[in-house]
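ESCALATION

Customer reports they have been waiting on this structure for their group meeting. Please prioritize. Original submission:
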Amino acid sequence: MHYLIVDDNRALADNLAEILRDGGAEVSVAADGSAALSLARGTRFDALVTDMRMPVMGGAALVHQIRQIDPCLPAIVVTAYTGESDLADARREGVLAVLPKPIPIEQLEQLLQVARRDALVAIVEDDAHLADNLSEALRARGFTAVTACSALDAERLGPIAPMAALVDLRLGDGVPGSVLARLAERFPQLPLIVITGFPDALPSGVRPHAVFTKPFDTHALLASLEQLHLRREAAR
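Update from on-call: job pushed to the front of the queue and completed.
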């Protein structure tokens, strides 16, 4: 595995790199976002670990920029600051995890071991508790989750290229099935997995990859995503 570590604290970055190398990984280190982007243009990394607050380009901005180069790259953000705006910025970009500083090394190593390339899953669900639970379950399997809680919020998924989308049919601010229909139009090849308490409300003309009726078996849902990811990997 080859990881990219980005932190303006070079001593911390080098120390973390040494720990990961001791575990058998290859590690590249960059002191800022510009250097990280240059490395990403010439190297296929298996995961990015970046500090959140850095001069010129912060961690969330770096994740956004580096995804233009390598959309498949899983990212982990580390931060000594837990401000809600910082965390929201990072999660909006679809990160595998946000970890505190000092970095919990064992947790970081576990995340890196399961991190998958090309495994970004969009969750469109207005039940925040369910969305959080699904996100956590996905991260435990190495998938990256990006969430939208409303029809309007789902519009920002436009620049993101997920491998699949979990979509609730009924969101509070939209016509039932409207978000599903828009996603199907925008991403014709995107596997859409419906999660709903109203399976009869499927819009005409949309053929989802699967439908899970609430309350559903989370393990079965994860198994469906595992199969999709395996098929994508096999097709490469």
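Sent to customer with the following note: The mean pLDDT is 88.
Escalation resolved.
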